[in-house]
Amino acid sequence: MSQPLRLGIAGLGTVGIGVLRVLRQHAELLQTRTGRAIEITAVSARDKGKDRGLPLTRYAWEGDPVTLATRDDVDVFVELIGGDEGPAKEAVEAALAAGKDVVTANKALLAIHGQALAESAEAAGRTIRYEAAVAGGIPVIKALSEGLAGNDVTRVMGVMNGSCNYILTRMETAGLSYEEVFAEADALGYLEADPQLDVGGIDAAHKLAILSSLAFGTKVDFDGITLEGIDRVSIDDIRAAADMGYKIKLLGVAQMSGRGLEQRMQPCLVPDSSPLGQLEGGTNMVVLEGDAVGQIVLRGAGAGEGPTASAVMADVCDLARGLKAPVFGRPATSLSTATPASATVAASYYLRMSLEDKPGALAKIATVLGEAGISIDRMRQYGHDDTSAPVLIVTHKTTPDAIASALSAMTGTGVLSGKPVALRIEDV
Ligand SMILES: NC(=O)c1ccc[n+]([C@@H]2O[C@H](COP(=O)([O-])OP(=O)(O)OC[C@H]3O[C@@H](n4cnc5c(N)ncnc54)[C@H](OP(=O)(O)O)[C@@H]3O)[C@@H](O)[C@H]2O)c1
């Protein structure tokens, strides 16, 4: 009989307690599947006296996660504290230095320090597993690094922040403003303590940075992401996009173009009949594209106790079985430094503007677009109020630079009332 795999778990919040529950509930099943018992030796959190809904007396308690990570009777250090600095980082570094494998759900840590940690792990002959760090319960890390290992990955896309998708879908279904739904989501506890992590797109961008590295063999490059949150998405845009057959999503896209690695996390339009367009509420979706496989769509719960614990346990089971892959799918020292390219891949754009009720106003806008080399695919003009009329335009494929120069030229036409809105339409 193989030796048990002994875990040290730091962090007993939503994810940590979920892992404890799964381990208690499925101890026998896990042993049958992996061929060895999986045991918890010791745990760590800030407050030893907190009622966590489970008895913890059978595990040793460590106040300091670094001490936990380096215990002789711990084989795998499970980091479920969070944050890209502080105790999580110190404990993961200590665990690797002490020759332990690491399982973590911490996307911030990997998005910022992934390369250095991967190099440390590989130098020590250890690995870091992080299925729960991207899209919660969806096994996207495994799908990309193992399932698509035979492909040249061409593009990775995803809606990877459930709170943003909840806000955008709720705005649409209830006809509420961004501010109203934000307040609702906050009151329901759907947002992080710092809501910018969610609505500013940072949390989703951490996940995209990790996926890019796995997909394209590049060092994690969070700073190379063009990042824009959902706070400028208005109910007017949601309604107008719906009218033209689209949904607005906070969409992460990573693809390699001739000019380098393009990574974007920004509100985009997607066709409302596409899988991404159909995604409602807090659910996540990741779309992977490879030259041999074509397109794969993965959908599921991106957060919460059960789904995240499911992903953590998948990593633990792999380690129990002795499966060890390089952290980012290939040796860390062979990962290349990405050349960041900002949106060089052409796309159609959605433009919404309000035109003053003057003769020739629309013709002036059409001229500006034509001079920027942008052709119009579809256009819709709505009824005038007293002084202006809303106009929607869907362009043929063009570059972000052309759109930027057209928008700036439009302001000089004297026919615009207010600022025009431009959103990319992603081909999905
Ligand atoms: N929640 C999700 O759905 C989800 C989904 C995917 C990934 N994740 C990631 O999983 C990780 C954990 O998230 P969570 O939602 O479980 O967080 P959480 O509920 O806030 O729990 C964090 C835990 O870390 C402990 N902790 C904080 N500072 C510590 C320190 N200095 N030493 C020891 N323990 C410390 C806390 O102790 P006390 O309880 O004593 O305060 C708490 O038990 C994060 O990286 C997060 O991004 C979460």
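The mean pLDDT is 95.
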